[in-house]
């Protein structure tokens, strides 16, 4: 098993490398396509990474990842399954890609907060004119008065 490489991106200018010793792989029989071979080969892959003990993350990155991935974690362990391919090798690659994508997404900085802006005078006038027109349409739908 080799190390996991997360490519550079927002929040990870130099990328990230997780040592192979910090990853845990488990194999089992997968359901789905594969014919007779699906009953004899362990092609399903479960890849796990303990975010609390990994040395690949700084303390700030660790806290951000734990906060953002909290719904997916069991304790502090991130686990990903891959069973969509018939071969164990391709499922191992797919699981690694998923973990890398999850880490990259979790470590990205939050988007900038929205700056409050004011409506332009023209936009306010158009909005009020539209409301007045709509109000007039609805008023005309009512029954006419008896004195008309």
TrEMBL record:
All copies of domain Prokaryotic-type class I peptide chain release factors, residue ranges: 18-141
Comp. bias intervals (Basic residues): 115-125, 136-148
UniProt keyword Cell inner membrane present: no
Biased composition (Basic and acidic residues): 126-135
Pfam families linked to this entry: RF-1
Gene Ontology molecular functions: peptidyl-tRNA hydrolase activity
Start and end residues of each stretch annotated as Disordered: 104-148
Enzyme Commission identifier(s): 3.1.1.29
EC top class named in words: hydrolase
Domain of life assignment: Bacteria
Family matches, as InterPro entries: Pep_chain_release_fac_I (IPR000352), Pep_chain_release_fac_I_sf (IPR045853)
UniProt keyword list: Hydrolase
NCBIfam families: PRK09256.1
Family classification: Belongs to the prokaryotic/mitochondrial release factor family.
PANTHER family: PEPTIDYL-TRNA HYDROLASE ARFB (PTHR47814:SF1)
Protein name per UniProt: Alternative ribosome rescue aminoacyl-tRNA hydrolase ArfB
UniProt organism field: Janibacter terrae
């Amino acid at each position: 098993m080799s190390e996991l490489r997360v490519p550079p991106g927002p929040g990870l200018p130099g990328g990230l490398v997780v040592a192979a010793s910090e990853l845990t792989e488990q194999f089992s029989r997968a359901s789905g396509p594969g014919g007779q071979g699906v009953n004899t080969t362990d092609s399903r892959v479960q890849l796990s990474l303990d975010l609390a003990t990994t040395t690949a993350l700084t303390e700030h990155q660790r806290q951000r990842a734990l906060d953002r991935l909290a719904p997916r974690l069991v304790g502090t362990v991130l686990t990903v399954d891959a069973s969509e391919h018939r071969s164990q090798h391709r499922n191992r690659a797919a699981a690694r890609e998923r973990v890398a994508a999850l880490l990259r997404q979790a470590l990205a900085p939050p988007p900038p907060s929205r700056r409050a802006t004011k409506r332009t005078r023209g936009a306010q006038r158009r909005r009020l004119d539209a409301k007045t027109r709509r109000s007039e349409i609805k008023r005309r739908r009512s029954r006419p008065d008896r004195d008309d």
